[in-house]
Specification:
- This protein has 2 helices and 4 strands.
- It has about 80 residues and is an alpha+beta fold.
- The protein has a 4-stranded antiparallel β-sheet, with helices on one face.
- The protein starts with a strand and ends with a strand.
- The longest helix is centred in the first third of the chain and has 14 residues.
- The model has no long low-confidence stretch (mean pLDDT about 85).
- The chain is about 30% helix and about 30% strand.
- The chain is globular, with a radius of gyration of 13 Å.
């Protein structure tokens, strides 16, 4: 079993929350996706933050290209590791 984690980067909290709520409708995910605020360096304003949705994929079953297409609907992207 591998230790795979997908990090989806979204432009705002609303988009991140919607992705976290709907990802299970399209993909079989293990556990609840985690929302993480990623403040840009030197920025104090919450509006200047990206939001991350962290999806655990312990069996490596999620298709990276399909995740890219999914998150693009919210102007986001998948962070490649």
């Amino acid at each position: 079993m591998s230790d795979v984690r997908h990090v989806l980067v979204l432009p705002d909290r609303d988009a991140a929350e919607e992705v976290a709520e709907t990802i299970g409708d399209r993909f079989t995910v293990t556990g609840e996706p985690q929302l993480v605020r990623d403040a840009l360096a030197g920025e104090d304003d919450a509006e200047d933050a990206q939001w991350l949705v962290v999806v655990e994929d312990p069996d490596g079953r999620l298709d990276a290209d399909a995740l890219d297409e999914f998150v693009a609907d919210w102007d986001g992207w998948r962070e490649a590791h």
